[in-house]
């Protein structure tokens, strides 16, 4: 199995210019790929950024020469035809070294269009329609479709040089099982090995056996455990909730209000927090044993340069 350990570029936390320099440093440190978030709003006012991912990805792939992935919602803020075009352009420019992950979205980013925010089942139905539209456009078809999503006589003239993988993003076993029937691969987030195995088994049960598995591992490192915990709390406490809450709150201020009772010690439930190189090595080893082929390390702290240097010296050499 060919594995990749990649660097997660968090557009909510850093300016596009800063992220570009960090991606270059990550490449030089031995990270093998880039994963990009795609936000219109940050998770909190503390983070204060929200660069446009597709514009940034072109610059980052050119500057680093690394393959890249992005997660986006192609059904509200974006029309799936625009997502298909953006992904196809990046794939054509960089010889297919780009793949797309899609999810049902969060009100934080998607409700800016003023449309009603539907229940999860309706968002999933829209997502599957979008996936069918994206694939048809990538295949060169002229697409007219009147369903939950409308598209009229659309044909994509600049297409991928080879088939792109369309990953589906899941945070629950129910979603993972549903994705198994139509997604080309699974994207999920880090969790305890027993819970991760349940997610993978659900994906396989739905039809995903043999399809690739991609992981976004949320971590926080500093030179002491106490500093790592505080950094995680300061930057990421607004994410310390189940997906049912995270997907429905509309603004950074809503998330900050919801997080008013979160304690620093609570952050260990959703993040891998440690100053120990061996602990991070062990976590990655567990992920590889589960079958994840691409692991993207999302260090939520602001000490990105120190994180990259530490992992280059102490962690990555022990993985390969």
Explained architecture:
With 320 residues, the protein is α/β, with parallel strands linked by helices. The protein has one domain: TIM Barrel. The chain is built from 12 helices and 11 strands. Strands 1-2-3-4-7-8-9-11 form an 8-stranded parallel barrel, surrounded by 9 helices. The chain has a two-stranded antiparallel sheet with strand order 5-6. β2, α2 and β3 form a beta-alpha-beta unit. α1 packs parallel to α2, α3 packs across α5 and α6 packs parallel to α7. The longest helix is centred in the middle third of the chain and has 19 residues. The protein starts with a strand and ends with a helix. 47% of the residues are buried. The mean pLDDT is 96.
Summarize the model shown.
The chain has 320 residues and is an alpha/beta fold. The chain is 43% helix and 17% strand. The protein has helices spanning 16-29, 53-64, 80-93, 107-110, 120-138, 173-179, 193-208, 225-236, 243-246, 252-258, 277-290, 304-319, and strands at 4-9, 34-36, 68-72, 98-102, 143-146, 150-154, 166-169, 185-189, 213-220, 272-273, 294-299.
